[in-house]
Amino acid sequence: MNAWPLWAMAAPEPPHGATLGGALEVVALGCIGVAVLGLVLVEFVFKSRMARSTYRWTLLLGLFVLPGVALLGTTGHMFESMKTVEACHSCHVMNPFVEDMHDARSATLAARHYRSGAIPDKQCYSCHTGYGIFGTVEAKRDGLRHWLLYVTDTWKEPITYKGTYPNANCLACHATAPTFTRVDSHKALRTQLANDEMGCFTCHGLPHPARPTRAPTRVTTNP
What we know:
mainly alpha, 13 helices
């Protein structure tokens, strides 16, 4: 069975209209508003008219249930917002990578994909998150590790990619594209590419600027 079409089916679709992050934000704000308004009304308007058990259940709803839903909504919104390029660029360590991607003269894969509009949104997340059921879990795990290294100032310059980059991330979009399938070398190396025995970068160049060309990003303070 040819697995490449399955990888292609896993490719993320561009957002259409309302986004999940926006919906979660609305849910969280709505829960907070209802909880605050409800508690004020119950305590200062309806308390004397309510049965004791109803009053307690209402407090439980306003103090714990609705805030809990709001917490889930804000957490989901945070996870969604962290997928954006702006979120990556908010950390100065990533400046060389994001600036290169936006550079119209750059020949890196990231810049070429960005210029062509191949990935319309969440470019960093789309390429650096493994597809499949464990992809997003692994991304959050790596993100937590990066955050710990950053806040403890234990990261090394220049930063390096931990592990190997799976071809499946590239093939998720390219496997069924005519510009890929009609190339003889791709057909000849089909098995090697599928098994990660040969990387896409071998022929197509660096995805980001080479380490020696990156400007130092560590912020230093005068003693």
